[in-house]
Design brief:
The chain is of the alpha+beta class. It contains 3 helices and 4 strands.
Length: 94
């Protein structure tokens, strides 16, 4: 997959490394490679790649990750699918 950024410095993703137990779930479920393992902890390697899908937060059993789900491109793709329309996250107006 090629590296495509979302919009710079707007993502709601928050990470508390002190709560991370190194389970690797965030690395496994993230569709845009936002995380990598560094030793026994996850690390955010490119916050701007986050599409705010919420997969990392849902799968983080220690609540080290939070994100405002349902905003941005991920939401547009999902709602476009359900409504049978082209996805629109209004990126063109930014």
């Amino acid at each position: 997959m090629h590296n495509q950024n979302y919009i710079k410095n707007v993502v709601t993703l928050q990470y508390d490394s002190s709560k991370c137990i190194g389970c690797k779930m965030c690395v496994e479920v993230c569709p845009h490679n936002v995380f990598k393992m560094t030793g026994k902890k996850a690390e955010i390697i490119n916050r701007d790649n986050c599409i705010e899908c919420g997969g990392c937060e849902i799968n983080c059993i220690t609540h080290a990750l939070t994100v405002n789900q349902g905003v941005g491109c991920a939401s547009a793709v999902i709602w476009g699918f359900f409504k049978g329309k082209e996805p629109s996250c209004d990126c063109e107006t930014v």
